[in-house]
Amino acid sequence: MNNPGFIEAFIDYVSKNYMRILTATGEHIYISLIALAITLVTCIPLGIYLTRNEKIAPYVISIANVFQTIPSLALLGFLIFVFGIGNDNAICALVMYAMLPVLQNTYTGIKNVDKATVQAAKGMGMTNFQILMKVQIPLALPVIISGVRVASVWIIGTAALAAAIGGGGLGRLIFSGLSLIRDEIIFAGALPATALALLTDMVLKKFQKYTTPEERAKRIAKKMKVNFNH
Amino acid sequence: MVYFENVEKRYPDGTLAVDGLNLEVESGEFVVLIGPSGCGKTTSLKMINRLEECTGGKIYVNGKDIMTLNPVKLRRQIGYVIQERGLMPHHTVAENIATVPLLLGWPKKKIDARVDELLDMAGLPKEKYKYRLPAQMSGGQQQRIGVLRALASDPEVVLMDEPFGALDPISRDNLQNELLTIHKKLKKTIIFVTHDISEALKLADRIVLMRRGKIEQIGTPDELINNPATKFVEEFIGSDQLSQISGDASVTALLEDVIMEVNLNAAIEDVLEDMQDRDVKSAQVTDAKRRWHGSIYLSTLKKAKREGKQLVKETLSVNRKLYVEDGNLKDAAEMLVDMEAPIPIINSANELQGIVTEKGMAKYTINKLIK
């Protein structure tokens, strides 16, 4: 940003194009949310399934690992053959990227729940489904959410590339800024994208803390009007 | 109440863990399964609530063949306590105790009343403990909650799998005594697994001594000690060594570190709280030079507090003590029979040397027995 009038140019650009920036931000959120939703709906159940079929777990997780290592632009380019150009292609690529942390954390989070606790739950007369819902998922939740945090930051960051294959989002501003060599346009795209990623991470971090046993017990104690730390 | 008929457990790899077990546990009986590791005692216990499935023979609970029952429903009818880490770490004490009643779909009010009732029974003030997490409590308190949880739905049979195995000797002893009181009061059928012979002798109505998947001998503690059926039983109980313990030996053989030492000028209120938190029932009172001034007990402290006394030095018990120079095991044993609290051991200059505990005495005796 070595051109001297950058700040003025940026303010000028934003004031004239705020609708465009807002629309692009909206698209960006939309693409990211859909991608994240698909990731969660597929990978959390898959992760749980893997804890019950441990033999195939290493293979499935290494597939997710391979997706992760393909350079993002190459993946987007390759998917044009499958989905053509546009948002569908981008969303599919984002899901493939975000799979690993969610899958891995769901799997390890549930596997790491103390076996003695699970055995006790079974001995009390819980069904397998009740053990999953009342014991394993609640105890694994902080770990699962930490995977979701990583995934959502990646998704929001990588979603900017969607514009490269005809998709929408803040990437459009960034790419047009790049081709016009105008830093203020790049900035108008990059700034909201960064802010979105940071904000999402912050919110999820709060939620992660909310799901820990200590926080839950504190809420109960507060509701019952007793002091948690005696 | 629980009836084993030729029960066999063979694992897929061919090992025979339990081999033709026949056992009838009467209603209200306290039966302890004991034996060296790998003898099949835990497997036998777990077959009762079908955490392990038997591969031969039949088990009846309350007259019903358990293989004809739904395992989940069966488990909800049977109390179950495991060694440690058995509480749900994310659930409060109240929720943990309420586990089975919740699964059985009891109304909320009934569950709440039941939780309070059980906490009262265990002497745990509900306003203090109800909404705590297991991690906020000592191991002894956690196991106490584990026992309450097993009793919550008032099952007729309670299975206990080395429930006190991981506890320190003091808590262990306390919990054993409480369990005996509960058993006396509630007349539950208890089947208890341990590898600790002193625990078995203390708790059991009948002991089932197992070895390599088979029963070596069934009998009351007295029968096992006095009439061991085989050489193995004799060695396991160690009855031939009993006569070798001499009451004339010095108490120094049993000397242990003081569990809790309190300064003469400490406030009753603080000490009381400290003792309750640490789950100890007595402490030794000393001055800055570690001279012994007396013992205090939870019960007398509570009484002194009610009477409005402020400092521990106003409520000392000074008569119960032994001198390191001439105290012998017989004196100590007699004192422990009168009252199970640790005995302070002092020297002629009144300096506190250590304590002798019931547990230490038992351990010493058992080591002598087994050697």
TrEMBL record, chain A:
Keyword Transmembrane helix tagged: yes
Membrane topology, record value: Multi-pass membrane protein
Compartment(s) of residence: Cell membrane; Membrane
UniProt KW keywords: Membrane, Transmembrane, Transmembrane helix, Transport
UniProt KW Transmembrane helix keyword: yes
CDD domains: TM_PBP2 (cd06261)
Main subcellular localisation: membrane
Gene3D superfamilies: MetI-like
Transmembrane segments: 29-50, 56-86, 139-165, 185-204
ABC transmembrane type-1 domain residues: 25-204
PANTHER family: CHOLINE TRANSPORT SYSTEM PERMEASE PROTEIN OPUBB (PTHR30177:SF28), GLYCINE BETAINE/L-PROLINE TRANSPORT SYSTEM PERMEASE PROTEIN PROW (PTHR30177)
Family indicated by similarity: Belongs to the binding-protein-dependent transport system permease family.
Protein name: ABC transporter permease
Source organism per UniProt: Fusibacter paucivorans
Taxonomic lineage: Bacteria, Bacillati, Bacillota, Clostridia, Eubacteriales
UniProtKB/TrEMBL annotation, chain B:
Compartment(s) where it occurs, according to its Swiss-Prot or TrEMBL record: Cell inner membrane
GO molecular function per UniProt: ATP binding
InterPro entries attached to this UniProt entry: AAA+_ATPase, ABC_transporter-like_ATP-bd, ABC_transporter-like_CS, CBS_dom_sf, Gly-betaine_transp_ATP-bd, P-loop_NTPase
Keyword hit for Nucleotide-binding: yes
Keyword set includes Ribonucleoprotein: no
One Pfam family per UniProt: ABC_tran
Sorted UniProt keywords: ATP-binding, CBS domain, Cell inner membrane, Cell membrane, Membrane, Nucleotide-binding, Repeat, Transport
EC number(s) per entry: 7.6.2.9
Protein topology in the membrane: Peripheral membrane protein
SMART domains: AAA
Domain ABC transporter, chain residue ranges per copy: 2-237
Reactions mediated catalytically: a quaternary ammonium(out) + ATP + H2O = a quaternary ammonium(in) + ADP + phosphate + H(+)
Top EC category: translocase
Main location: membrane
Subunit structure: The complex is probably composed of two ATP-binding proteins, two transmembrane proteins and a solute-binding protein.
Membership in a protein family: Belongs to the ABC transporter superfamily.
Protein name: Quaternary amine transport ATP-binding protein
Organism: Fusibacter paucivorans
Native organism taxonomy: Bacteria, Bacillati, Bacillota, Clostridia, Eubacteriales
